[in-house]
Amino acid sequence: MITDSLGRKADYLRLSVTDRCNCRCLYCMGPEEVPDGELLSLEQLLEIGRAAVACGVRKIRLTGGEPLTRPDILELCRGLNALPELKELCLTTNALLLPALAAPLREVGVQRLNLSLDTLRPERYAAITRLGRLEDALAGIRAAEEAGFSPLKLNVVLLGGFNTDEIPDFVALTREHPWEVRFIELMPMGPCAHWKKSCFVPGQTVLDLIPELEPVESAGVARRWRLPGAPGTVGLISPLSHAFCETCNRLRITADGRLKTCLHSREETDLRGLRGAALEETIRRALAAKPAGHRLTETGSQTARTMNRIGG
């Protein structure tokens, strides 16, 4: 197991497989894309996965962009799942392509899905995604359940003036389904780096609106609550108001092969062209320089990339 200079273990890799997406969510995507030739190949992704696991990574989450837009996504999942020491293979998706892919993903070893859904209203969904349809996302959620993915996690980015009036509706879903609805604070980076302050809503707003929520055990970076008698849970991920840097166990690798030890740092380590022991050693050296924290509330995000170019 590799640790950084502060003794934090690094056993969780978020591996971006593409910066492409079939949506263009306002807070996520800029106008540019990585040229085709710069995206990591299937072989490079598998080599990086092997090296990361050799360094102690036990959980890999595939991200994007939209990872399901990658034509070889099933082959990649199959290859990563074959790594003997990998304990968990997960994927984050907007769910639009799940009607066709949920069952195949389950068959090749994906164990958990996180589904991005920022609104339950069709017109708002079209406005925030610019390309997507809510009915397709809901069909994808149904397909994920039918394929046996449980519990599902729904990621809801809190957007002041846009979806905070839907907080009770999202919480109500946990009365009907064994889902974890996770409210995520919007971060000042990429397209929304200079949005007005009112757009950034603290997670505490959820608890203020729904006082009957009762605290339960946390899971990873999500502090969790439950409505009395509900099968599902409510999670809060609060990188601004309740930063979790001191326990951060994450590494990120971008779709063009750069290792980031902190989402918001400018520092990146190029892994392209490296293999075997050289790749492992480069990962270990990069982790040794992992910053203590992101300092978002002091300096804002320092990364020059948009979220789709890092990996959600």
Radius of gyration: 19 Å
Number of strands: 12
Per CATH, the superfamily is Aldolase class I
Q: Determine the number of helices (DSSP H or I, runs of at least 4 residues).
A: 10
CATH topology: TIM Barrel
Q: Mind telling me which CATH architecture this is? A: Alpha-Beta Barrel
Measured between the Cα atoms of the first and last residue, the distance is 24 Å
Shape: globular
Largest sheet: 12 strands, mixed
What is the H-and-E element order?
EHEHEHEHHEHEHEEEEEEHHH
Q: Class, according to the CATH hierarchy? A: Alpha Beta
Q: What proportion of the residues is helical, as a percent range?
A: 25-40%
Strand content: 15-25%
Tell me the number of structural domains. 1
Q: Structural class, from helix and strand content?
A: alpha/beta
- Name the poorly predicted regions: none
Mean pLDDT, rounded to whole units?
A: 90
Which strand order spans the largest sheet, edge to edge or round the barrel?
7-8-9-6-5-4-3-2-1-10-11-12
